Task: structure prediction
Amino acid sequence: MRLTNYFIHPADNRYYVFSFREENHSVIFRNSLEDQAIPFEFHEDDELEYGAKYLFGVPRTHFQEALKQNHLLYAAIRSPFIPNKFFRWLLLFITGLFLLLAILGALSTKVNAQTFPTKSVWELSVLARMNTPFSMVGVEDEVFEDLGLSAVWSPKMGQEFGMRLHYRLKENWSFGTGIQWVRRNYSINFHYQNDTLAINDFDTIPRLTTVGYRIPIFAETRVPLGLGYFVSATAGLGIDIKPSDSFVNTDNYEAYLGRVRWASLPLLAEIGLYKEPQRDKPGWYIGLYWSKGGGKSIWVEQVVLFESDYRVVSRGYLTSNLAGIELRILLE
Result:
């Protein structure tokens, strides 16, 4: 069983083979190869054991370009992680409800026989973040230009909510993980110029929203200031998961955003002020955070449409840096 739809040609390692089960998918892929002037050989085969019938042989020298078109194809045809919009919102509502009940229960519970010992090595926290566009750490506008189409992607304020679990290895060292819901917002400014057709047009998409999940894995150290206060510093890696793609359009322009891989591994860094929780009183943390995505994990596509038969497409990769302000409630 193959996990991907591409592999090295078994008889000639100078070629990669891209395989498709659906004829309409093969037609889309063939058109994209021709549009990008990528050389290929096409073959139909009814005898492959894993069911693929439509095969494309692409030279190794053009593998990366063909792989990009393959990713864009699957991004376009992939169904959402939760296809039904009602159930997507229901899942978010239930998650938020459980978080709220957990916070209220922790704040109202006093010491009893079922609680952890006075100095538990475990610490639970709930967090809220405000993602801010901060150019000094790489969260800034990005420009994509091709075929007369210029698009400026501007990051806007976003939000994160989640939970974390710390294990305190020593008095001032801990390790932990958690899960966070991440919402990113962008505005896109378009400019299309075509002297042949006498077109010089501008437009703006005020907001494109994309939602994903992050699983952080981190180590934290803290320096005591006295009276239960600490300066805390955290570093680690995350696993970013983006279930579905995003799409917004106007009369003449379209913008798409999607994942290259099912998950990416960003670097994480945080620093802030920390108030230790007590048995009958929660603590708190307020600080700054920054994360930098590794490699090409987010693709974007800009499209201009004039008349029914005129279409220009520009593509690129978006950096996935985040920075902002974080507030946590610490529960022991």
